[in-house]
């Protein structure tokens, strides 16, 4: 599995997200309780960057229509979203955050 | 009556959410859903946007395949309910059939309000309520076509942006003096108007249709009260919605003045075995003197959950702060709470930079929020709306501060204050 460095841990506070570029693809990176997670960048419902959404209780709410996804599993939690997000494995090495596109689920 | 069965009349957003919620509450009886259309419940918001212009048709299902299976409804599509008999607990169908029920849920939605001069069935006349309506309009939105939109409300403006994006030349005729005057302050109306102009849309405010006739080439000639003569390849009528309350009226249920099936806080009608939810209702809400109709996606969902809980005598969900969105071309506008005449507004950022957030308050108590491309910021304010306590607005507008952090600080200060 190829790990690519995408960010430094200090770039995000808890319950913050940003869109990072990984090998030419955009991915949403989240931080919750000091842990990092990654999902596909776009909402499965409309064209919106999830990193511009609102994080609460382990979920990301889309900034356009408030569809909610579980950040850890990518699961679509409430209308209007019905299709889950792809998630990507993330690992932390010191202050460096690595992501792998290979094992997307 | 048929014990242990629920009939849902209607198969839209509210009907689907109600069915799923009944199952989530553990209901195991039969749920029959009567849909006039052939489709399973689908989302209507995209009908004025992506369905009109996107190359690829979006997925419109309200429920995922898995949710639809869990809702486990006996779906009678292409079925029209003609009459409701509360005494016999029966719904009579156009095809002569009869459906019995223990509880009936009316989720009949509404019809597009028609202009007498432009009948629903007219060639080159378009109303948008169903998927077929939208697909028919889509076929008419070609480059160079002149599309006249009657009504500059949310729907009309969404269609204006879509039609313009499809290459049509667009004129909007609106009788009010400014756009969305019942929903947003004048500065936002001004911004909407300049955005439409930027998209090449002609806007005729303070005008209405005086006459309509057919031209030799088949186009329609719309004459406006302001002296406009508009030759239209397509006329879209977007002047509001009429609630489908005929079944309820026929059954002798209470109907609100001005239309809408009258329901209480539990979405129950004047018959204790009949509930109603969504666009077809008029509900008296806390703090209101008169019942109101709320035509929104959120209301369709929330009333569905309330009605399902009411039918099963489960605790009613807490009504959320009203929330509404509209996608106007490339801009996403969201509204939280409700406007009032006596509010003061503070603003962060600037709509000319395509992002702004307004907070309307009464002596510091948040009442009305409007976001242009700032949905997450508006979402961060929601806890303050729910709390209903005054907030400290001095630093709300300061650039560089995060709304989320500001909102959390307000909440924390309020806790300390307690």
Structure characterization notes:
The complex is a heterodimer of chains A (105) and B (418). Chain A is mostly beta strands. Helices cover 0% and strands 46% of the residues of chain A. Chain A has strands at residues 4-8, 16-22, 25-32, 35-40, 54-56, 59-61, 68-70, 76-78, 87-88, 90-93, 96-99. The model of chain A has no long low-confidence stretch (mean pLDDT 94). Chain B has helices at 13-24, 50-53, 65-71, 131-140, 154-165, 186-198, 246-250, 297-311, 375-387, 403-417, and strands at residues 5-9, 30-35, 73-77, 81-85, 90-93, 98-100, 103-106, 110-112, 125-127, 146-150, 169-174, 202-205, 209-214, 220-224, 229-232, 234-237, 241-243, 261-263, 274-276, 281-283, 323-328, 331-337, 344-350, 355-362, 365-372. Chain B has a five-stranded parallel β-sheet with strand order 3-2-1-7-19, with helices on one face. The mean pLDDT of chain B is 95. Chains A and B meet through loops of A and β21 and α9 of B.
What is the strand and helix layout of this fold?
The complex is a heterodimer of chains A (105) and B (418).
Chain A: E1 4-8, E2 16-22, E3 25-32, E4 35-40, E5 54-56, E6 59-61, E7 68-70, E8 76-78, E9 87-88, E10 90-93, E11 96-99
Antiparallel strand pairs in A: 1-11, 2-3, 3-4, 4-9, 5-6, 6-7, 7-8, 10-11
Chain B: E1 5-9, H1 13-24, E2 30-35, H2 50-53, H3 65-71, E3 73-77, E4 81-85, E5 90-93, E6 98-100, E7 103-106, E8 110-112, E9 125-127, H4 131-140, E10 146-150, H5 154-165, E11 169-174, H6 186-198, E12 202-205, E13 209-214, E14 220-224, E15 229-232, E16 234-237, E17 241-243, H7 246-250, E18 261-263, E19 274-276, E20 281-283, H8 297-311, E21 323-328, E22 331-337, E23 344-350, E24 355-362, E25 365-372, H9 375-387, H10 403-417
Parallel strand pairs in B: 1-2, 1-7, 2-3, 7-19, 9-16, 10-11, 10-16, 11-12, 18-20
Antiparallel strand pairs in B: 4-5, 5-6, 8-17, 13-14, 14-15, 21-22, 22-25, 23-24, 24-25
């Amino acid at each position: 599995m190829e790990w690519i460095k995408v960010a430094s841990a200090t770039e995000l506070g808890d319950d913050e997200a940003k869109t990072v570029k990984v090998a030419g693809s955009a991915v949403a990176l989240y931080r919750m309780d000091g842990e990092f997670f990654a999902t596909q960048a776009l909402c499965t419902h409309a064209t919106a960057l999830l990193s511009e959404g609102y994080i609460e209780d382990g979920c990301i709410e889309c900034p356009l229509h408030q569809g909610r996804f579980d950040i850890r599993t990518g699961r679509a939690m409430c209308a209007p979203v019905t299709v889950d997000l792809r998630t990507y494995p993330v690992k932390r090495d010191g202050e460096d955050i690595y992501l792998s596109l290979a094992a997307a689920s | 009556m048929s014990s242990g069965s629920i009939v849902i009349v209607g198969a839209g957003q509210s009907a689907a959410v109600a069915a799923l919620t009944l199952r989530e509450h553990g209901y195991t009886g039969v749920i029959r859903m009567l849909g006039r259309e052939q489709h399973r419940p689908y989302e209507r918001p995209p009908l004025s946007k992506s369905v009109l212009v996107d190359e690829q048709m979006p997925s419109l299902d309200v429920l995922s395949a898995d949710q639809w299976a869990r809702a486990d409804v006996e779906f009678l599509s292409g079925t029209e309910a003609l009459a409701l008999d509360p005494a016999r607990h029966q719904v009579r169908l156009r095809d002569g059939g009869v459906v019995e029920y223990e509880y009936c849920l009316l989720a009949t939605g509404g019809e597009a309000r028609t202009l007498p001069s432009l009948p629903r069935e007219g060639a080159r006349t378009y109303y948008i309520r169903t998927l077929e309506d939208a697909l028919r309009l889509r076929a008419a939105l070609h480059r160079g076509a002149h599309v006249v939109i009657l009504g500059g409300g949310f729907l009309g403006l969404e269609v204006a942006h879509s039609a313009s994006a499809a290459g049509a030349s667009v004129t909007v005729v609106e009788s009010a003096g400014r756009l969305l005057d019942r929903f947003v302050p004048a500065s936002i109306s001004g911004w909407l108007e300049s955005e439409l102009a930027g998209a090449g849309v002609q806007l005729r405010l303070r005008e209405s249709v005086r006459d309509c006739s057919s031209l030799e080439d088949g186009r329609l000639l719309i004459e406006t009260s302001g002296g406009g003569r508009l030759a239209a390849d397509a006329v879209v009528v977007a002047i509001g919605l009429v609630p489908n309350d005929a079944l309820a009226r026929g059954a002798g249920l209470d109907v609100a003045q001005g239309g809408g099936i009258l329901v209480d806080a539990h979405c129950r009608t004047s018959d204790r075995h009949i509930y109603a939810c969504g666009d077809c209702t008029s509900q008296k809400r806390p703090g209101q003197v008169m019942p109101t109709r709320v035509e929104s996606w959120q209301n369709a969902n929330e009333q569905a959950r309330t009605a399902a809980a009411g039918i099963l005598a489960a605790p009613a969900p807490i009504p959320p702060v009203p929330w509404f969105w509209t996608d106007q071309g490339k801009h996403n506008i969201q509204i939280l709470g409700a406007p009032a005449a006596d509010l003061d507004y503070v603003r962060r950022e600037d709509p000319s930079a395509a992002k702004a957030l307004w907070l309307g308050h009464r002596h510091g108590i948040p009442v009305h929020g409007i976001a242009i491309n700032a949905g997450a910021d508006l979402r961060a304010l929601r806890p303050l709306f729910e709390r209903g306590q005054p907030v400290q607005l001095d630093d709300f507008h300061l650039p560089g501060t995060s709304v989320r952090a500001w909102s959390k600080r307000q909440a924390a200060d309020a806790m300390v204050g307690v």
